[in-house]
Amino acid sequence: MKQIRLLVVDDQALVRSGFRMILDAEDDLTVVGEAADGNEAVAATCELRPDVVLMDVRMPSCDGVEATRQITASLPADACRVIILTTFDLDDYVFSALRAGASGFLLKDTPPDELLRAIRVVASGDALMAPSVTRRLIEAFAAGPDDVPASTPIDPADDRPTRPTPIPELATLTAREREVLEVMATGLSNAEIAAQLYVSEPTVKTHVGHILAKLGVRDRVQAVVAAYESGLVRPGS
Q1: Distance of alpha carbon 108 from alpha carbon 189, whole angstroms
Q2: CATH for 140-230?
Q3: Dihedral, CA atoms, 12, 13, 19, 25, nearest 10 degrees?
Q4: CB burial class (10 A; 0-12, 13-18, 19+) of residue 2?
Q5: Mean pLDDT of 73-93
Q6: How confident is the model at residue 149 (pLDDT cuts 50, 70, 90)?
Q7: How many angstroms separate the first and last alpha carbons of the chain?
Q8: Residue 95 has pLDDT above 50, yes or no
Q9: Of the N and C termini of the chain, which has fewer Cβ atoms inside 10 Å?
């Protein structure tokens, strides 16, 4: 059984302890370290090389967004994946975290079984987490500040696009790869995409790999963001 190595990052010791108790109880999960802020998270990631980092966003000194940016910039996409932990499902920090290279996000009150499933999914690189919520987040991210719900605080430094941004690399995708990308944007797993397009799951995996390589992105989240930003997929479509 392949072990998934985890780093838990949160400025509250009780929160870190709670996550560790849940995670270490699983045979295939091992918490290899903890960090109390972004600076510690970056140092611990470089030293311990976890497969997945559970990253809080609101921390003193160095927040989770900047830590995620440093981690994803310094390590290959398949070396370590970051899951953002947030209190609100449309936390303004999450927009910046996705741009910084996070592979997804979880609410802090996510039930333990969903937390465990999400970690395994992200570690495998297979699919977006919580498709219904993640899609809504990415749609708002890609649509721009004017379309974000009024209840969502907006960072003045937010650089989300307000109109589709041309992405030349999309022109290199085959018709089938574009079709797979469009379905990916709905948050479906490889197995679900295969069922919808009437192809095998290995075929879908091959297409997804080609899409990531051609777009030059780290993972599925970044590919879906590119699809929305470019206008290939429109919110609500």
Answers
A1: 23
A2: 3.40.50.2300
A3: 180
A4: exposed
A5: 78
A6: very low
A7: 40
A8: yes
A9: N
Class of domain 4-125: alpha beta
The C-alpha atoms of residue 7 and residue 83 are separated, in whole angstroms, by: 10
By the 8 A CB rule, do 53 and 122 touch?
Answer: no
Nearest to 121 by CA among 95, 172, 150, 83: 83
- Helix or strand or coil: residue 92? helix
- pLDDT the model gives residue 188: 78
The residues spanned by each domain of the chain are 4-125, 140-230
Predicted confidence (pLDDT) per residue in 44-62, tens digit: 999 999 999 999 988 888 8
Quote the mean pLDDT of the chain: 81
Has residue 133 got a pLDDT over 70? Answer: no
- Residue 151 has a pLDDT of 36
Instruction: Give phi and psi for 187, each to the nearest 5.
Output: 90, 15
Q: Do domains 4-125 and 140-230 have the same CATH topology?
A: yes
Can you tell me the distance from the alpha carbon of 54 to that of 10, in angstroms, rounded to the nearest whole number? 8
Q: How many secondary structure helices (H) and strands (E) does the chain include? A: 10, 5
Q: Spell out where the chain has E strands.
A: 4-9, 29-35, 52-56, 81-86, 104-107
Closest by CA to 187, choosing from 147, 139, 231, is 139
Sign of the C-alpha dihedral computed for residues 6, 11, 14 and 15 taken in this order: negative
What is the DSSP code (8-state) at residue 131?
H
Backbone conformation region of residue 130, classed left if phi is above 0, alpha if psi is from -120 to 50, else beta:
left
